[in-house]
Amino acid sequence: MPLPLEGIRILDLTRALAGPFCTMILGDLGAQVIKAEPTQGGDMSRSWGPYHDGIGVFYLSINRNKQSLAVNFRNPRGLKLLHQLARDVDVVVENFKPGTTKTIGLDYDTLVKDAPQLIYTSITGFGTDGPYGNWPGYDQIAQGMSGMMSITGQADGLPTRLGVPLADLVSGIWSALGTITGLHQRTNTGRGQKVETSLLAGVVGMLCVQGQRYLSLGEVPQRIGNEHPVIYPYGAFEAADGMVNIAAATQSQWQNLCRLLNLEDLIEQSEFVDNEARSTHRERLRKIFNSRLNSRNAIDWTTMLMENGIPAGPVFDLQQLFEDPQVEATGLVELVHHPQLGQIKQLSNPLRLESIGPKTVRSPPPLLGQHTNGILNELGLTSNDIVELQEDGIIFQDAVNI
To answer: Where do runs of H (alpha helix) occur along 89-165?
Structure first.
């Protein structure tokens, strides 16, 4: 069965994280992603440590299933190549500072004149309108301004960023979704369109019930640590060897949990009779639960509770996660051969489609310029043209693929 996006060609003008994460998702789904990089140094994330035998793991984490075209963006001849490609592909994805693409002739309004079928996906920091429309975007800035940091962390602690670059990642996911939507609509209309989101919008769109609390009730949610803001008991508790998450979201689950923990006397106590009462008396209930849960390990509690209808799970560090048998059984880590590093492990795409199968990492993150010659051949350049561009420093081809 063909891959879902097989035959779709994407010119990836992005760097750092939000854009590359978007195009990696599209590459996972079968699109040909041409990652255009400066000849000197390539994508900035290549230089961000820590390093796996000289290659930045940041770059390795977001660039699988792509081809690398190394071209001098600052040279008019290099820009001409990008202009040709942009008019030849199905999708252009960019995350430059607003206004940059217009100055180099790679903006949507310029390209669509000659390529009305083009899907043009743009990721900015704050959108292109409003008082911040010209500001550059950075993940932690967006996390802070979105309100997400204000509701993350311990109640008596400081606002806290998520342990991964949330704004970059979610804006990349939204952008991939928008790109696929644009491609689908093009099959009916024959025309492309511009797809836009921002780091700020991406996180605001994830505020969910916390955002709706303010919009509906005027409530400003506060940090509540590892507990659910409106349901209890639903959070992290203390087992003998670490934390265990327990989620008793319904009244029947609450009653079942009490019976399983031999705490039946709590069921009828007025302080815990319903969710509102339990939420009001969280601190007391937490101490009772911790005292009981401290008698067994987190995975033992998890097994017992899950097998009796109570959602639960240990709080793993990453070593525990990647050594867990469920991760191996579900193929969340894949092996792929890298031309410099040999066999490496990569995170799998979490989607499972029949047309893709269990293996989603078909090619490793490319070396800088690994596919330059092949991409330009596809564009119609002759061998002599390519040699001349190489000699003049307009393009770079890594020797591994010659």
So the answer is: 100-103, 108-111, 139-145
